[in-house]
Specification:
Layout (H helix, E strand, L loop, with lengths): L1 H16 L6 E16 L4 E7 L3 E11 L2 E11 L9 E12 L2 E9 L1 H4 L23 E9 L6 E8 L9 E9 L8 E11 L2 E12 L2 E12 L6 E12 L2 E12 L4 E14 L2 E12 L5 E11 L1
Antiparallel strand pairs: 1-2, 1-3, 1-17, 3-4, 4-5, 5-6, 6-7, 7-8, 8-9, 9-10, 10-11, 11-12, 12-13, 13-14, 14-15, 15-16, 16-17
């Protein structure tokens, strides 16, 4: 682990010494910590939790007219001190971008994971949709392609190399429309599929848009394991409303497993923006799981982005 820390420190320091004309390098990060009362099903306890806090390097390097190298090296940082590994890998890749679109090699979120856009209003927190739904995968040995946008539409795909004898290649494909940040369009929509990705085949459809002063979102997902068992149908509904510096949020999830548990989750939250970079927030999440102990979480926190 000491070696990983040295490598990360060296990478960050090296970024400051790159010639100004050689590349566009951004050092960025996010610190997100909460003080919360948690019940994972075995009883209530208090904790201070780091929620996918991270630091990274990313940028571009123009090679010639219309062709650039793009790269990213991002690390998750354990800011609550609970983990033996202070730094763990997140998305890390290098590739080319041009008139043909973008091709990336390395470790990356699959296209199905990216297809959710920003519908998950409690991403990285206890209510993150990965707790009820398969498909939220960040995988190594991937090749990712994204086409140029044509009339708002974009095709994208992830190829996951088998990486060992007798394993199977995986594929994650998607079609997108609009801007997931809803800054250039009022609607974002996508449909995506996983084929043999971490043992599951998945179909996911997502839509999010602005309606009056609200941002409303919905996601449907069908998943089943490669052997045809463990089938699930589920959905997510989310809504948020901004009042000056305050954002009110709500989200509901339902995962209906064929012949097994029905799992639901409900969350409400409030964000208070102190500045563009900083917000205070609070949330409450409750999971109702058939044939298992329920779970709930109540938290207040701070997030700082740079």
């Amino acid at each position: 682990m000491k070696l990983s820390n040295r490598v990360l420190t060296l990478a960050i320091c090296s970024a400051f010494t790159l010639p100004a004309m050689a590349a566009n390098v951004d050092i960025y990060g996010k610190a997100n910590l909460t003080l919360q009362s948690s019940d994972d099903g075995d009883g209530q306890f208090t904790e201070i939790k780091s929620n996918a806090s991270r630091i990274g390097l990313k940028g571009t390097h123009a090679l010639n007219d219309g062709l650039s190298v793009v790269y990213k090296a991002e690390f998750q940082v354990d800011m609550d001190g609970d983990s033996d590994d202070n730094f763990t890998d997140r998305n890390q890749y290098v590739g080319l971008k041009g008139h043909f679109g973008e091709v990336l090699l390395g470790k990356n979120d699959t296209i199905l994971k990216q297809s959710q856009g920003k519908i998950d209003l409690f991403n990285d927190l206890n209510a993150d949709i990965k707790n009820l739904f398969k498909g939220e995968n960040r995988l190594g040995d991937t090749l990712t392609y994204k086409s140029p946008k044509i009339n708002g539409f974009q095709f994208a795909g992830t190829y996951i190399a088998e990486d060992e004898v007798d394993a199977e290649d995986g594929y994650s494909l998607g079609l997108f429309y609009g801007d997931k940040g809803l800054k250039k369009s009022k609607v974002f929509a996508s449909i995506a599929v996983d084929n043999d990705v971490k043992g599951y085949d998945i179909t996911r459809a997502t839509v999010q848009g602005k309606v009056g002063g609200f941002v409303l979102g919905a996601m449907y997902q069908n998943q089943e394991s490669d052997d045809g068992s463990a089938e699930m149908d589920g959905f997510v509904l989310s809504a948020k409303y901004a009042l000056d510096k305050v954002v009110l949020k709500a989200q509901y999830q339902d995962a209906d497993h064929d012949g097994s548990d029905d799992k639901t989750g409900a969350s409400v939250g409030l964000d208070y923006r102190l500045a563009k970079s900083t917000k205070l927030f609070a949330f409450y999440t409750a999971f109702d799981i058939d044939n298992a102990e329920d779970k709930d979480y109540l938290a207040i926190g701070i997030e700082y982005k740079f």
